[in-house]
């Protein structure tokens, strides 16, 4: 394992600011993504369990009502159920005597009656109804896949595959009638909102079998047709990929699997279903999806979906987290829980970044999972363990594993999304305002500790009554959830390696959000292009809405062998833009090849309704997997405390002159600031701009060094702009 150094939050001296990572938060600017601005806990804060999960009552729980504590106490929503539909098929329903290979539908209906009656009479079910409104129902491989494997009652689904009875017809009929008979939106347990056709079929039947993959995809179409006959409102999706890995074999994996699935089944699928896992301990390597790989995976699927169907269909990510391979056969340890949680937080923030395209996400954290015990070793990713499993503890009672700290961390977050931006891609961010509450989320993709300069605007300090800061990090590979209290919003925070911080800020009055940032994602007319050296790839992005002011980020998905260039020449409407060197997350050197997204800031002024983007690499091989543009239209000018077009991690373009802007002292408590412009060109004039975008002070320069009176400026952060010969040099100035 790489070194992970984490510490509890503390305030840093102001002189350390230059080494910090700036994060700007504008609490008065609502950030909507595709018209969605509210944090939907039903989508994002879930558990891989169903309403009637037996694990809630199995054995003796130390907490008297574990179900209520998790679901209501932590504000968690039910996620996915694969058990009961399998149990009824495998152990209960009879074969139709007149239709071999088909379930007896009358018997199935009889079996549903006590099931529905039990729901209405059992308060431990019906009182959680509101937490069960968007659950996922899924079929497991057996006995649903028609290959002759019998149920425990001695029959198997029909394997007939003809034009009139395509493969899976009998399976689909059973599923359709199970959904219809065992659920009732009016008087009993509600219908599942989503149905996944079959769980990880390609991994089972192709990677570890010899099934024709096209038969699996045809099966999806048949199931979708049958289910929709009886349940037109249930949304159908697939193919529930275990490990997407589109980039393998120079994207042959994409061609043979997801691209083929979309072409064969896309018209019948309401959503795309995938699983995403980090492999931090796989064959002596660390292989992560979190960060840029997740972004590239989702972007490629979005872009392909948009180009094929004129809409980016939503995602159901019904399992995500980490596979701790080195701990598979070990008893429970806090270290394994930390391996899982650090992946959960970073992936969750990637999903939250596209709320308009996420239908549901579920961390793969089950409850007690005694069904998964193997050779006496309990199942790995569990939320509950017996006390005796921990060193120094005894007892059979069930208690939470350390994974509960993930739910403790996210326990209260809700509200309206507001503008937040980090100058460094490795610090993931989000922020929400809810009445008199503010929640600011910071997550560190770096495997070393990072220090954040938190620049919070839109609220006066005297309106803050208290700040609770939760910090989930690791100490000697054991997860710690530290909680600290402040009376004002901290300006600097230290965040542990791969740690996550959530600030909960209490205000004296409701915070009004009066401005807007409307984000839209636009896709190029083409995607998935082969790279040839020194040959420009040309893309067009149409119908872009541009308003008076805003920000733009070009997202270039890319798959290449290690050692090849990740620094193309990129032009937007004929103008070359700076390509940052930093890539979100790790550099993927321990994966077979690189697959990620280059996130390239673009000057808003370059934006047009129709945009031409050219991309040129200096070497052969690999593919541009996707190209999209995130456009943020603001209702007011927004000045960042850092340079969007030239972040600290960016490759600098061709230097027009040897200019460098220095402000002394900075921070300043004096009445004058010395402005020093190094280089061979004479600056013309200087501007001081506050964070609302207003120019508050202008002075002529005419010399390379000049003292500027700043006593008229209020305490705060300003952007200093020096203009010289078609260049603008910028620097942040803090007035104390």
Automatic annotation (TrEMBL):
Residues 665-735 form the Secretion system C-terminal sorting domain. It comes from the Bacteria. Residues 426-529 form the Porphyranase beta-sandwich domain. Residues 539-632 form the Beta-porphyranase A C-terminal domain. This is T9SS type A sorting domain-containing protein.
